[in-house]
Amino acid sequence: MTDQLDRIQVSGIRAFGYHGVFPEERRDGQEFRADVTLWVDTRPAAASDDVADTVHYGEVSEAVAAVLSGEPVNLVETLSQRVADAVLAFAGVQRVTVTVHKPDAPITVPFDDVTISITRERV
User: Fold this and answer.
1) Which one, 14, 64, 78, 81, has the greatest CB density within 10 A?
2) pTM over the 0.70 mark
3) Which residue in the list 19, 33, 82, 102 is annotated as catalytic?
């Protein structure tokens, strides 16, 4: 079914959170970013030209930011799953791909970014 769906993508959603396994991550926090791709059927919205007939990507972005800044978790994998769950709670979203970025991860060598990407479907 997802091969017949359209995609809405929002990239670079940012929020400050306190996720991580190290005490300084929990104490000091850091910025997290997320990219989300939603698989939806946009045909009803295209026909009606009404936002009520699609997934409101502004509201999705707010929900994602709330998870990023919400209850701390140890692992980015857990954070990614929580983001996916929040997005799948929106009616019309059949599938989501989430990439969570942790650009300030406590790594002792030079690096640009750490990302975890997951894809989940409505069950």
Assistant:
1) 64
2) yes
3) 102
